[in-house]
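Reopening this one. Same input as before:
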Amino acid sequence: MELPLAAQSPFQRLRPPLTGLVLGVLPLWLFVGTSESFSVNGQFVSQSRFNILGLVLAGIGLAMMIKLLWNDGPWARRWLPRTALAVVAAAICLVQLAYSVGLVDLSRFLGSA
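Same output, byte for byte:
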C-alpha cells in the first residue's frame, strides 16, 4: 500500500518523475535497433537510425508522466518541483521518441558526428 502524497518524503515524491527522466535519457547510451549511413561518391550524405529500445523506454516514461500528471489532483494543490520535473521528463521522452524513430537529429547537441 502506498503512502498518501503528503506523508511521503521529498525523495519519495520525486521518484516517479526521476524514473521518467531516466527512461527518456537512457536510450541515448543504450541502442538496440538499426543504423545506416549513406554516402555518394565518398561524401557523407545522410544517416538513418531506428532505436527500438529507445522507443519502448521513452514510451513507458511518457505514459508514466501522463498518468502522474493526470492523477496528481488539481493544479492549485500540486507540489511544484514534482510537477515541473514530470513536465520536463515528459518533454524529454517526447524528444527521445522522435529521436528513436529518426525524425530528429540530436548529433549537433550531443557532440557526435
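So the earlier flakiness isn't reproducible anymore. For the record, The helical segments are 10-25, 52-71, 80-100, 107-110.
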